[in-house]
Write a structure and sequence with these properties.
65% of the residues lie in helices and 0% in strands. By secondary structure, it is mostly helical. Helix 2 packs antiparallel against helix 3 and helix 3 (72-86) crosses helix 5 (102-122).
Amino acid sequence: MAKYLLLALVTVPFLELYLLVGIGRHLGLLPTLALVVAMGLIGASLARREGLRVVRRWQEAMAQGRPPEEGILSGALVLLAGLLLVLPGILTDVVGLVLLVPAVRRRVAARMRASLERGMRNGSVRVSSYGWGGFRGPGLREAAPTSRLPGEVDAEFTEEKPGR
């Protein structure tokens, strides 16, 4: 996963620059700059509206006592779309706009969920939770112990100063 992220961080800026130069040659400097600024403003507005819609649907579902239809991944994808739309560039704007389409976002979230579940089953993805030392308020309960790999142990280390 890290190698794909690194690859994207290296190649996407070059692709964006290539596209901007090509569009700039075809349209001119000012129209290209206007296009990038307009896409950022429109995208930020759409991301805000879509994010508020997701939150509103979550609240309605919770008020009716049923689980929200759109999960955490969908909300995270709206956040990612907003970030991509604010970044200058044509490629990131297109990906951000596509992620704001609810049908596309649901499909991407379903694929991400399936990938996470597969990774958790085969052990390549592990989920850990950290609590606040024994505090358990109303409605909170202690988490079940996590599964351990063979030979895995919990350990705490302290450093002792010489001469003690």
